[in-house]
Design goal:
This protein is an alpha/beta fold and 206 residues long. The protein has a single domain, classed as Rossmann fold (3-Layer(aba) Sandwich). The strands form two sheets. Strands 2-1-3-7-8-9 form a six-stranded mixed β-sheet, with helices on both faces. The chain has a three-stranded antiparallel β-sheet with strand order 4-5-6, with no helix packed on it. β4 and β5 form a beta hairpin. α1 runs parallel beside α4, α4 runs antiparallel to α5 and α5 runs antiparallel to α6. It is globular. The N and C termini lie close together (4 Å).
């Protein structure tokens, strides 16, 4: 059964609540639809210095790694400390499906991971902005691709379903007159990047 490893920074002063809510939504969805799947939650208290050893322990087999935290072109960070980076440990994400809900990481980090044998990378190439008055909508959009993948869609189809779900929610917000929130979701949708094997399915991550 697919194993899920979730990194999230609930202690971030600006977006900690959002990151934790994204994680909780995913865990609830797994409980409802893929009960029994191993889930490891690595929150803000995890020791960055031990992450490399953790990745070496799981990367001989296919696995899903999901991150909800800050990022830049080449890394993900927590409290200003990089914990996944092109310069240090991106090569350890071999055999992963890696989804990063973070700013900019699709630019350099994603291609580096795929170049080192990662199966799939999904992330954002621009700054990931959150409509604060519509956080639940944003969370649903951010996790919608994972939801569809868990329900059995192949990775490439799930990615397209994610973009379609973004569009549906954008249209709804526009109908409500929430133009600024809708524009932020448009930017998120347009900055989504998929790299890797579009034909992989949840059954390929036993």
């Amino acid at each position: 059964m697919a194993s899920f490893h979730i990194l999230y920074d609930e202690e971030d002063t600006e977006l900690g609540g959002y990151f934790e809510a994204c994680k909780s939504d995913l865990v609830r969805f797994l409980g409802d639809n893929l009960a029994g799947s191993p889930i490891s939650e690595l929150n803000a208290s995890f020791d960055v210095a031990t992450l490399d050893a953790y990745l070496r322990g799981i990367n001989p087999h296919n696995y899903l790694l999901i991150a909800y935290s800050h990022g830049d072109d080449s890394s993900l960070s927590r409290n200003g400390v990089r914990y996944i980076s092109t310069q240090t440990n991106a090569s350890l994400l071999i055999n992963s499906l890696f989804y990063a809900v973070s700013c900019l990481s699709a630019n350099d980090l994603g291609p580096e991971i795929i170049g080192h044998g990662g199966h799939i990378f999904v992330g954002y190439r621009r700054t990931f902005m959150i409509p604060l008055d519509y956080q639940e909508v944003s969370i649903n959009c951010a996790n919608s691709g994972l939801h569809m993948f868990i329900l059995g869609q192949k990775a490439g189809v799930a990615f397209e379903s994610m973009k379609a779900f973004y569009t549906t929610q954008i249209d709804r917000l526009m109908q409500f007159g929430a133009i600024i929130a809708a524009s932020l979701l448009v930017d998120a949708r347009e900055s989504l990047v998929f790299l890797g094997d579009a034909d992989l399915a949840i059954t390929d991550f036993p």
